[in-house]
Amino acid sequence: MLARLRVWAKRLRREALMLWLAARDPRTPTLAKAIAAAAAAYAFSPIDLIPDFLPVIGLQDELVILPLAIALALKRLPRALAAELRERASTMAERPVSRTTANAVVTVWIALFAIAWIRFSG
């Protein structure tokens, strides 16, 4: 079962990467681009809607919300384009992880949280 979960997680990561590529591709229709960008941002964000440390419901967003967002984006994306981008995503997924990008994402989230805190706290 653990092996199947790893395969599923790897496929989910590849699909999220494919959506990130779709959001940046000029051939992607506008609605598909918006959905793809939101799904990819959520997938790669280090901050979850529901924190993972909460028992039972902590992983629900990854198990429910993310696959639904990916499916919705894929319905709006032309099949040929999705296949092309999926192939690129598979190639990119084999590369090492960029720590610089991860740090940039965390910095943006912290800045947004700080702005919201200042704006709404007083």
Automatic annotation (TrEMBL):
It is found in: Endomembrane system. Pfam families: DUF1232. One of its GO terms (cellular component) is endomembrane system. It is a multi-pass membrane protein. Keywords: Membrane, Transmembrane, Transmembrane helix. It comes from the Bacteria. Residues 32-68 form the DUF1232 domain. The chain crosses the membrane at residues 102-120. This is DUF1232 domain-containing protein. It comes from Alteriqipengyuania halimionae.
